[in-house]
Amino acid sequence: MVRNYETTFIINPQSDDATIEKHVSDIKDIITNSKGTIINENHMGTRRLAYEIDKLTQGYYATFIYEAPTEVLPLLEQHFKINEAYIRDLTIRLECDPQEYLKQQDPFGKHGSDRDSDRPHRHRSDKPQTKSDDAPDKAEAAPEKTEVKEESTKADDAPADDKPSEDKA
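The chain above was modelled as a monomer; its predicted structure follows.
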């Protein structure tokens, strides 16, 4: 049965470039000799590893997306185990269309963008107002408090006639 797969592997980067390319082409040959077809080949190059593996901090990454019969998987696994140059490998079966999968991996194209040139660019200062932005500031709330104080001071300034006089008592 023919299925779509993605195989990513890491090669020890301490070898020379010709040896690394030979290891990558070996994987390609295994796939094509097993009646498989390569859909996409991505040589990511030497990158830092997420964690140290066999005292290595860097590795050469490569990925193949291909269509092949299921018999190719044991051949790849055997090759990865026999050759010590391969640090890690991972093969997954793609359940979707490989072209759609590639678009999901890089939605903007190889180095492009899906931005329309007509669309205005927004800055952080142009963000839309939220409910918290609609709330009055403390500076705006302060005059209301002073008005309340002014009203209370007006009651204290009432005419002297309203106050009981000491003479009448």
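The helical segments are 17-33, 72-82, 98-105, 131-134, 138-156.
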